[in-house]
Automatic annotation (TrEMBL):
Record domain Aminoglycoside phosphotransferase: where: 41-273
A Pfam family reported for this protein in Swiss-Prot or TrEMBL: APH
Transmembrane segments: none
Protein name (Swiss-Prot/TrEMBL): Phosphotransferase family protein
Native source organism of the sequence: Rhodococcus globerulus
Residues making up the signal peptide according to the UniProt record: none
Length: 359
């Protein structure tokens, strides 16, 4: 039985891989104010990435985040990075949970973890959940998403103590190298599309003109909306890939997850943004650019790169799932998502206005 699948232990209470006795002992001495009675926990989501838990004592509720179980690729699933950025952004207009405690002692739970505030909000990250909103509310939700991303990218890293959080120079080249290595480290089958995409992307790397804080995984599934106001985002979540770099990389990710009528859907979002009312990609980009008061260059390169990056992430998740190192549900179809994303990226290169991508 893998660590990820165990639910009980002779040594103590274990919930979906989370050792509650070890956690209680640590929090009682390291969390400000200690804990009030016995710790309980439940898995919020094994996610397709980091296991996330609802943790409570007699009077408090928190969210605990930790890296996946089993083999984790170098530099991926960085809890220190995630904790650092949400703690820094607390003083800005970007809505983030309060960060309470970071534990880098891997002897406690087997990995670095942190505690943050549990935000009460509404998730519309699936077609089923978004369908509960009216078309007018879906439009407001989409525009709010563009606004929050623009607000993040407008934050001066120096002003929030993130000036050493990453390097903007050479960011895109390093990203290509990183995700190429990640593919090599986690691939479960050979796919010639990967080499073809990397060749095209490397020939056409744009010059970074809009540096700033990059989230790295911006999609509707990673935001929570006010339950009373679908036009207000109360939390932007999942900062494990955040760094300093080219902010247009986030715009590419946003578009990769923003499905459009007549186009191939991202297999993760399953046509989510095609629901009536959600802004078009063009409207989303216009809102974002107006909010930042910028002129956007051609973003095809960033969209192609986003599809490639997401495909590599999914391949890594598939590899962990095949080894039994995932918790929760929603993994059985991951392997089938990789090929369509790679093909969609190649298809865009063939019709792109960026000459180097078409070659």
């Amino acid at each position: 039985m893998s660590a990820a699948s165990s639910t009980t232990s002779d040594a103590g209470r274990v919930v979906s891989g989370l050792d509650l006795d070890a956690l209680s002992t640590y929090l009682s001495t390291h969390l400000a104010g200690g804990i009030d009675g016995e710790i309980t926990a439940s898995l919020i989501s094994g996610g397709r990435s980091n296991p996330t838990y609802r943790v409570a004592d007699g009077s408090n509720i928190w969210v605990l985040r930790r890296p996946p179980f089993g083999h984790v690729l170098p530099s991926a699933h960085d809890m220190v990075r995630e904790f650092t950025v949400i703690d820094a952004l607390a003083s800005t207009s970007v809505p983030v949970p309060e960060a309470f405690l970071l534990c880098e002692d891997e002897d406690v739970l087997g990995a670095t973890f942190y505690l943050m505030e549990l935000i009460d909000g509404n998730s519309i990250g699936t077609p089923e959940s978004a369908a509960a909103l009216s078309p007018a509310d879906r439009e407001r939700a989409g525009l709010a998403f563009a606004d929050v991303l623009a607000d993040l990218h407008s934050v001066d890293p120096d002003s929030v103590g993130l000036n050493t959080f990453g390097r903007t120079n050479g960011y895109l080249e390093r990203q290509l190298d990183r995700w190429s290595r990640q593919w090599d480290a986690s691939r479960t089958t050979d796919r010639p599309e990967v080499a073809a995409l990397l060749d095209k992307l490397r020939r056409a790397v744009p010059t970074t003109s809009l540096p700033g804080i990059v989230h790295g995984d911006v999609k509707l599934d990673n935001v929570l909306y006010s339950r009373s106001d679908p036009g207000k985002i109360v939390a932007l979540l999942d900062w494990e890939m955040a760094t300093l770099g080219d902010t247009l990389a986030d715009v590419g990710i946003m578009l990769s997850f923003w499905d459009q009528p007549g186009a191939v859907d991202n297999p993760i979002t399953r046509g989510l943004a095609r629901l009536d009312g959600f802004p078009s990609r063009a409207a989303l980009l216009e809102r974002y650019a107006d909010r930042r008061n910028i002129d956007l260059p051609d973003i095809d390169w960033y969209t192609v790169f986003a599809d490639f990056k997401i495909a590599v992430i999914l391949e890594g998740i598939n590899a962990r799932h095949a080894k039994g190192d995932t918790v929760g549900e929603g993994f059985d179809d991951v392997a089938d998502m990789v090929g369509p994303l790679l093909q969609r990226a190649l298809d865009l290169t063939r019709t792109s206005s960026v000459h180097e991508l078409r070659r």
